[in-house]
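[#protein-structures] MJ: dropping Succinate dehydrogenase iron-sulfur subunit here for a structure pass
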Amino acid sequence: MDNTKPTNQRQLQVRISRGSEDGTFSTYSVPWRENQTVLDVVTEVQRTQEPSLSYRFACRVGVCGSCAMTVNGKPRWTCRTHVSRVEEDGVIVIEPLRNMPRIKDLVVDMREFFEKWKRAGNTFVGTATRNDPPAMISPQSKKRKLADAAIECINCGVCYAACDVVSWDKEYLGPAALNRAWTLFNDERHADPKDVLSKATSGSGCNSCHSQGSCMQHCPVSLSPTGSIAGLKRSSILSLLRRG
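AK: finished. structure tokens for Succinate dehydrogenase iron-sulfur subunit:
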């Protein structure tokens, strides 16, 4: 059996944004392997060529969302993005997520993302105590179905990075925060859904959304923040009409 390794293995050219400001690009060459993910590529560069390269990852299997980066101009989970789907003439370009300050290389500061999540009134406050029986919420109720349709968000930041309104308006709460507000507004166990609606619609809240749908297009778990935001807008109008 011939165990000689081939010497002419195809190479992939990887351009990675480096630094802590606007960033300059460094180019690396790595072997092009079958079923290779973008996260595999970044890891190989860090382990074999550039030990100081900074990036985030955890689970590697599409659960945590921490490996999100911009690949060839689009925000993605790199652990679930195969090189064969995104390479362009044997080249991939990897940058940090947009709309968040860069800390170093491919790592961004997500504090403003989570601060906006809080500003949208997204802390669950229950009405029951430990001594009360579990709430009897029917899975088939309209509100439960509306909440369930948007509840799988894990705050990876991809939708926030994809949103052009966030780029234009730094006060805009963003699709993830508003998507969460919609789930909480529809949660029949929550103590004050009116407060959620008020916070989600005030200032640069849901009414700043231009309904372009970039958040929906790029969501790795196929949620529709655009639909959630439309639900908040509709509920806000109905609330005004009832008061009138």
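MJ: nice. The radius of gyration is 21 Å.
AK: one more thing. Residues 111-124+137-243 form a domain with the Fumarate Reductase Iron-sulfur Protein; Chain B, domain 2 fold (CATH 1.10.1060.10).
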